Task: structure prediction
Amino acid sequence: MRVVPSICTFCGVGCGIGLRVEGARVVGVEPQPGHPVSQGQLCSKGWSTSFAIDTAGRLTRPLIREAAGLRPASWDEALQRVAGAFREALAEGGPGAVGVISCARATNEDNYAAQKFARAVLGSNNVDHCARICHSPSVAGLTLTLGSGAMTGSIADIDSADLILLIGADASENHAMIGARILRAQARGARLVVVDPRRTRLARLAEQHIQLKLGSNIALLNGLLQIIFANGWENRAFLDARCENVEVLRQHVAGLTPELTSAQTGVPVAELERLAYTVSHAKAAFIAYGMGITQFQSGTNNVVAVSNLALVCGQVGRPGAGINPLRGQNNVQGACDMGCLPNVYPGYQPADSSEVQAKFAQAWGVPMPQAPGLTSLGMTTAALAGDFKALMIMGEEPVLTDPDQHHVEHALRALDFLVVVELTMTETAKLADVVLPAASFAEKDGTFTNCERRVQRIRRAVNPPGEAWTDWQILGALAARMGYLGMIWADAEAIFDEMAALTPLFSAMSYPALDAHHGLHWPCDAAHPQGSPRLHAQSFPRGRGRLLPVSQVDPDECPDADYPFFFTTQRLHFHYGGGSMTRKSPLLERETPAGLLFIHPQDAADLHLHDGQGVRLRSRRGSLETCAQITDDMPPGTLSMPYHFREAPCNILTNSAQDPQSKMPELKACAVAIEPLPPGVAPRSADELNKEAGYGSF
Amino acid sequence: MVPSESRHFDLTCCELDSVERLRAHLAGGRTLYEVREDGQGGRHWQALTADDPTPFVAQTEPPPFAAKAFFFAEREAVFRFDGERFVAIEPTAPAQVLFGLHACDLAAVAYQDQFFAADAHYQARRAAALLVGLDCRHSCSQGFCTLVDSGPEVRAGTADLILLPTEAGWLLLIASVAGAAAVADLALPAASRDWPAQRVAHRQQVASEQGDGQWLQDGIAAINAAKVSAATWESLGLRCLVCSGCTTVCPTCSCFAPLERKLPDGSIEQERVWDSCLYEGFQKEASGHNPSALAGQRVQRFWQHKFGEGFRQTFGRYGCVGCGRCDHVCPGGIGVHAVMRKVGKPCSN
Result:
């Protein structure tokens, strides 16, 4: 038995784990007792890591599509096929017709390689990843108001906060070790307030639960500002010294009376006043939010509204205080940091700046693309229009996790060529022309960056199964096939060093420095060689914090006579993303049915629906069947489903209406109709329903 | 190897000039494991070579993992089905030494010896292992071994050899036939000191550090008198995130689940893997009925197994050995201390 220190891959918290290796395989994990983030604890997903990376069921050889289906091939043949397809697509459609969807689960090194491949080899800014569908509005919104889109503080700030305000974040389930830390803070006397349409575990344990109407975040946050300004509770000293646009915001919210806000949000006036008082009088408020803020067509404005509240109360830049987006994937922060976004290079260096282009052109030895890049939804839309030909997807499962699933599937089928780099045969990989087997995090060296900007080392514990390679090796070999030799690296550390040399935010980071400190927070440069756990103590990157008036935007689709229920999505403590890793655990897989719908007891009674009974759900985009679970977690009139299950993929139902600024689809709210299946009739899986409807299996 | 007759083995005591010399001797011909720091804040059982030069450090806190995984493997193949036949997979059982096990963890091994008495996989590995215990002189931070009769001095019949630290240096207690055989070549001189008095002094010291344990007695009494309200258990259940950490690190937890793995050659391999009774699915029946449908019921069931009188009578001791590991790993803050304090409070019921 050997124990190899690494970082958990199951969310953006970045817990320290030890991989317990017996012979040639990981048989279990243990928490790193001294780890500054997880403090010797893990969630059920973390404890189940050995199943997630089990080599049974893993892809071990490249696969190539022939008329009869996918067949094994050599790396040589597979890479040749991929290189040829990209060359053809480039010849036909130019750099705008090709792109890469990178992976928020892969390492910084893999992501750096992915955007370098897109820009230096394909000559295209068409590179994106799933941050689009979790926290792109955080980056857009906080960049507008502060000048930087990441968590302003660190997880340890929870320990010194006297108020923890969670908005649209189910932390004990999705970021469990942050949830645990919040519970410890509460036990030492901090106050917990949860704003969520659902009665989550932490909402039940909180001093105050603001159960607002789905999609009324801006109305609520503006209403709180009105109460704060009306009572003179704003932090005048902070506003004078650090912010701009105060009067404009004050006037914007002046008419939003508590009564009006109460009518828009469904929250009683007394509760609004209590929260306004609490947040404006807290010594240090740790304000954290999740996808209950971002996944709306008003996502960016929702983030701005959170930022407004924090700034007006002066809750930024001090120990315990801060605006803290809780990020979903283990390295979604890192994938953004590494420039796997169409508009920025590593370290958020703007892609449209000629200076930045010249810097990377010189470093990488080829001209950099001038044209703006496409987002992932932009790429799929262009594919449907016939303008986009060849796509590489690294380790993401858009067929399950993107909105309006039929759109994604049709778009991927419309491509001339799709190559998927994956651990297992996912629903997306099944559509590919070439599937390349990748190494899991336990099989490679590298770094992940957690949601508090802490860059941490992961270490190779076992060899990849069969012929699987790391993503950066695959990209480097493919680049070489396409005539570019600037991506042949000796090891992951060489990539990190290349990245750090080109990225001011990371300039003082190195593997030895990361090893010595349990990771370092960026910015980490000559001025901050020990990293920056807390940002904005003296000023904001854009100078003064900007208060921006924003107005309530209702969800694009609200309940009506045909689709009378509000519908939202959520996650379960036991699963991660599309379930391709967590569902390999026999224990986690046993824990819930493969797909379920949460419904309030009153709604269930009105529908004569029993617990566990099958239901059919319809939206304007599609329909599915699943089983109902009756719970007062839900408010009456609102239904919710987790998105982990391919048998009941709730994103068949969700709306792809987008936030105009970040292109975030409105995954958190749409309208559905529900009908119970006859008692005793089992729900049919999406696969079965598709066959009946003639869509074919995917 | 601690055969049942060693429970009645008369302890003898030797002077031990060098723990490292003993360790090197035992490591000859066996794989010897000792708890070492990993430089990243972790401590693990690590295999040492016979010539390992690092001085022995008596661990003052129990390591994150007890000895459980050495005998009850966390993942283990038990049989294969090749399409026609079921083939049992025989466990491999290399000779090994666990060096420096605390009394609590040895009490837990003895507890699991009973549970897995008829389990060939467990017993094969157990029979090939030599257990070297270590008496504690002070209480660890969360431990309460003196309140549950598991320490601080290694209990009779739970180890082959026992390291006894004293102000004047190390003593070694020979605690089983296998232990005597393992050190016969070292020709250690018999100790002339009053070692039983030394152990009593350690016990008194640790007992005074651990207090009178009223919190624990009250909790145990409430559980066994079924005086804990369902609402109290539910309030604890709300804090159970169902991470499975407690059952994973608990040295006496022994539940397992089957896992079918399809191998590249098409055959099926059946593993057994550590399970946790805190999962809702653990007791769920095929009909959908679940005797522990509520989170509070599952938390109650877990502690019933640790402190229930019926289990104590079956196993001859409580299922809790007082190591405090559940306190460390529980993200909901409901380890043994918090739970027993809560259920033992009259006002909470």
Notes: Chain B is about 35% helix and 20% strand. Chain B has two domains: 4-72+90-210, 214-254+278-348. The first helix of chain B runs from residue 19 to 27. Chain B touches chain A through 47 residues (CB under 8 Å).
